[in-house]
Amino acid sequence: MVKGNLTVISDFIFLGFTDYPKVKVIIFVLCLLMYLITLLGNIILISITILDSHLHKPMYFFLSNLSFLDIWYTSSALTPMLANFVSGRNTISFSGCAVQMYFSLAMGSTECVLLSMMAYDRYVAICNPLRYPIIMNKSVCVQIATGSWVTGCLSALVETVSVLHQSLCGNSIINHFTCEILAVLKLVCVDTSRVQLIMLVISVLLLPMPMLLICISYAFILCNILSISSVDGRSKAFSTCTAHLTVVVLFYGTALSMYLKPSAVDSQEIDKFIALIYGGLTPMLNPIIYSLRNKEVKAAVKKLLIRNPLCAVATASSLSHMITGVNN
Fold it and tell me: Residue 315 CA to chain centroid, in angstroms?
């Protein structure tokens, strides 16, 4: 609990989409569909990367990590909103808000780092294919994935503690559908310049810096692809890179517009819909984009459903129960 002017905040109230009463049901249905498709698509991707030995490669190892964090990311963002809509309650405890904020920030921050590492993986695979198995060996891949998770979780911890440690002036109404850090920061009644500086530094390190690495990687990749004489090889390289670039543009585009926009264009209503995009739409599209643009993934899905349907169902069921159990 945080004290401000002798007022103790124990619960927060979400305004959500109360300004749009005519479309609240539509938004709920769309969010529910996005969440279910996200769970199904990402669980399938994780299942095939585990069960199909042909996908035991660095690219799919990172892709399964992306799918795993997307499940948690969209669960932390959309599940509370869906539960509140069904129950009719729009409140959350202070500790619940802290947990929700932390997990959303941690998953988003981890994805920022992971996407840049996936770009580096594609750079090594296309520009240095002969040494690719040596450079991107199993130990290196595990270290890269672990580093991405640790970086994301630690940066989220710093931001969450920095914001919730501030004094709140008794105002417990959050003009959002989740405990989004910028929405909660608006409730602080003291000078927030230090907190904003911390958030700015972390945002610059996790958004423009990884994007710069991605741009450099793909500049080298593009030059290398254009020099490939084989039409099939060039087509396969373009297909793989296009899928990754599409995910990068969707995720970084919405994140940049949210966290590094000028204060003059600050709009809480726009922020809500942007949050729906990067919290619900992007995790839903990730497995669709990678599966539609990747012949290996499509072949693995067909093989899994035809030859191992029971094993696929068992894997998906265990993952689903794990997610449901933690959410409950």
Answer: 22
